[in-house]
Design a protein that fits this description.
81% helix; 0% strand; mainly alpha
Length: 78
């Protein structure tokens, strides 16, 4: 698949998982995932990781600054 499309998807994974994307973005990502196995696999890994973190941190209060730092660090990894 087109590397630019893969980069766009990877850059949007966390927004997608958090439901922070527009309908147009959902359609683009859905179309891309239907044609790109590596991105679909990556999404599966990220979904599993996100669900694991959420389940483990569910009853824990995390300061907004810490959460922002974590999200920023994760985005930098992408």
């Amino acid at each position: 698949m087109n590397d630019a499309h893969c980069q766009k998807l990877v850059g949007s994974l966390y927004q997608l998982l958090d439901g922070e994307v527009t309908e147009d973005q959902v359609q683009f990502l859905s179309d891309h995932l239907a044609e790109c196995g590596p991105c679909l696999e990556r999404l599966g890994v990220e979904m599993h990781f996100t669900l694991l973190v959420r389940s483990r941190c569910q009853n824990t209060t995390c300061p907004d600054e810490v959460m922002h730092s974590i999200k920023t660090a994760l985005q930098a990894e992408i």
